[in-house]
Design goal:
Elements: H1 33-76, H2 83-99, H3 101-109, H4 115-160, H5 169-185, H6 221-253, H7 259-290, H8 293-325, H9 331-348, H10 379-412, H11 418-434
Helix pairs in contact: 1-4, 1-8, 1-9, 2-4, 2-6, 4-5, 4-6, 5-6, 6-8, 7-8, 10-11
Length: about 425
C-alpha cells in the first residue's frame, strides 16, 4: 500500500533526512568532539527508536481504525457501492487526480494574501485528500471482492478437473503465488508496505503528488495517460490481490475455527515479525549496499514480502479485534467513531498522508541500501525542521549585521574595527529584546 507512499528522500521533500545521517543538533563549536559524537549517536538512535515505536503502535493503530471504519461502512451500504461499478469509479478518480495534480499544486502555491484565500487553499487540500482516501479504500475493497470472485472461479475449475478437494485453500495459494510472481517480474513489490513499516508526514509540497511507473507529468501526455492506467489498473490491482491473498491464507490456516484466538494470535505474530524485520534492517541494508543486479533485487523483494506478512497480520489482528470488542452490537456506530476519530487525530499529528496510496514506485531503484529502509520518520522530521528554522533565523541575523556594518563603513569612510561589529551585534540583540 504505502509504497505507493514516498519512500526515499529524493521523492519526498518533506522528509529530507537521508537515513538521518546529517546531524540534527550538531554544533561546530563543540569543545569535545568525542563526547559530542557519543551524544549525537545516542540522540540519533533514540529518535529512530521512538519513531519506529510510534509508527508501529499509535500511528499504525490509527491508520487501521480509519480504514476499518470506512471499509465496513461501504459493506453496510453495499447496495450503494456495487463492486465492479465502484472499481471503475475508482479508476476514473485516480486518473483525474493524477492528470490534474499540477493544476491543484499551482492553485495552492499562489500567495495567500487574504484569510479567505488561505481557507480556500486549505479547503482544496482537504477535499483532494479525502477524495483520494475514498478512492484508495474503495480500490482495496473492490479489488478484494474481485480477488474473491477469481478464487471462486479457480475453485470451480479445480473441482471440475478434480485437482483438489472442496476447500478454497489451494485456489488462494495458487492465485497468490501467481500474483506475487507477476508483481516481482514487473518490479512492483516496493508498493506493498504500509504502517507499521511506514509512516508519511504531511507536507504542502507533495500533497497532490501521484507518482506513476515510467513517466512524469508533461512528458508526452498520451504516454503519461497510458502510464497512469498501467500504474492503477495493473500494479495497483496486483498489490490489492497480494494483500487479499495473504489475508485470506491467514484466515484459512491460523485457527480458523476460533475467531477470537485467531485474531489475538495474528496480532502477536504480526508484531513479532515486524519487530524482527526492523532488527534485520541493518543487515539487509548492508547486503544491498554490496550486491547488484538480480541478487540485490531478489533480496530486497524477499525482505519486503517478509515485512508484508507481519504487516498483514497486524492489520488483521487489530481489525478483527475491533469488530469483536468495540461496539459489536452496533457495527455502524463503531465504524463511524473509529473512522472519524482516528482521521482527526492523524490530521492533528500531521500524519494523515499515511492513509493514502500515492502512485507507484519501482523495486530497488533507491541507491545503495535505501531500498530496504522503511521510512518511519516523525520526530526526526520535527527536529530537523526546528534546526533548519534556527539556522535560517541565524542567517537572517548575520545578514542584517553585515548590512549595518557596511552602512557604517561607507558613512565613516574608515576601516571597520572589531568593536564596530560588536556594537552592531549588541544593537541587534537589544532591538530583538525590546520587541
Amino acid at each position: 500500500m504505502t509504497r505507493f507512499s514516498l519512500k526515499d528522500t529524493e521523492k519526498n521533500d518533506t522528509i529530507a533526512i537521508p537515513e538521518c545521517e546529517e546531524p540534527l543538533l550538531k554544533s561546530s563549536s563543540s569543545a569535545n568532539d568525542d563526547i559530542f559524537d557519543k551524544q549525537y549517536l545516542f540522540m540519533k538512535i533514540s529518535l529512530k527508536s521512538v519513531d519506529i515505536i510510534l509508527a508501529s503502535t499509535i500511528f499504525c493503530f490509527l491508520v487501521i481504525c480509519c480504514w476499518r471504519g470506512a471499509w465496513e461502512l461501504f459493506d453496510i451500504y453495499d447496495n450503494y457501492f456495487p463492486t465492479y461499478e465502484s472499481f471503475c469509479l475508482t479508476m476514473v478518480i485516480y486518473l483525474v487526480l493524477a492528470l490534474s495534480q499540477h493544476t491543484f499544486q499551482d492553485i495552492v502555491d499562489q500567495p495567500a494574501e487574504t484569510s479567505l484565500r488561505k481557507y480556500f487553499n486549505l479547503l482544496i487540500m482537504k477535499m483532494h485528500f479525502y477524495i483520494l482516501l475514498f478512492a484508495t479504500i474503495m480500490l482495496f475493497r473492490t479489488g478484494s471482492n474481485i480477488y474473491d470472485d477469481i478464487v471462486n472461479v479457480f475453485h470451480g475449475i479445480g473441482l471440475k478437473f478434480k485437482f483438489w478437494d472442496d476447500d478454497c485453500s489451494a485456489s488462494s495459494v495458487i492465485l497468490t503465488v501467481i500474483v506475487v510472481a507477476v508483481l516481482t517480474w514487473i518490479r512492483g513489490m516496493a508498493n506493498l508496505t504500509t504502517a507499521p513499516m511506514d509512516i508519511t508526514c504531511d507536507g504542502k509540497d507533495d500533497i497532490f503528488l501521484i507518482e506513476c511507473t515510467f513517466f512524469k507529468m508533461g512528458e508526452r501526455t498520451s504516454l503519461y495517460v497510458l502510464d497512469c492506467l498501467f500504474s492503477i489498473l495493473v500494479v495497483g490491482t496486483l498489490v490489492v490481490f497480494v494483500w487479499r491473498g495473504v489475508w485470506q491464507l491467514i484466515d484459512i490456516f491460523l485457527f480458523p475455527n476460533d475467531e477470537i484466538f485467531s485474531s489475538w494470535s495474528s496480532l502477536v505474530l504480526g508484531y513479532l515479525v515486524v519487530a524482527s524485520a526492523f532488527l534485520l534492517q541493518p543487515l539487509m541494508k548492508y547486503l544491498c549496499e554490496r550486491l547488484t543486479g538480480t541478487t540485490r533485487l531478489l533480496i530486497a523483494d524477499t525482505f519486503v514480502l517478509y515485512a508484508l506478512f507481519g504487516t498483514v497480520n497486524v492489520w488483521r489482528g487489530i481489525w478483527n479485534l475491533l469488530n469483536i470488542y468495540f461496539l459489536p452490537d452496533n457495527l455502524e456506530m463503531s465504524c463511524w467513531i473509529t473512522h472519524w476519530v482516528s482521521l482527526i487525530i492523524l490530521i492533528l499529528c500531521r500524519c494523515s498522508n499515511s492513509l493514502l496510496v500515492r502512485g507507484v514506485y519501482i523495486d530497488a531503484e533507491e541507491p545503495a541500501g535505501k531500498c530496504v529502509v522503511f521510512p518511519c520518520y516523525y520526530l526526526r522530521v520535527i527536529f530537523r525542521k526546528k534546526k533548519l528554522k534556527k539556522l535560517n533565523l541565524a542567517t537572517m541575523s548575520l545578514n542584517d549585521t553585515i548590512k549595518k556594518v557596511n552602512h557604517k563603513e561607507s558613512a565613516s569612510n574608515h576601516v571597520v574595527k572589531i568593536s564596530t561589529i560588536s556594537d552592531t551585534v549588541e544593537e541587534n540583540c537589544d532591538t530583538k529584546q525590546c520587541k
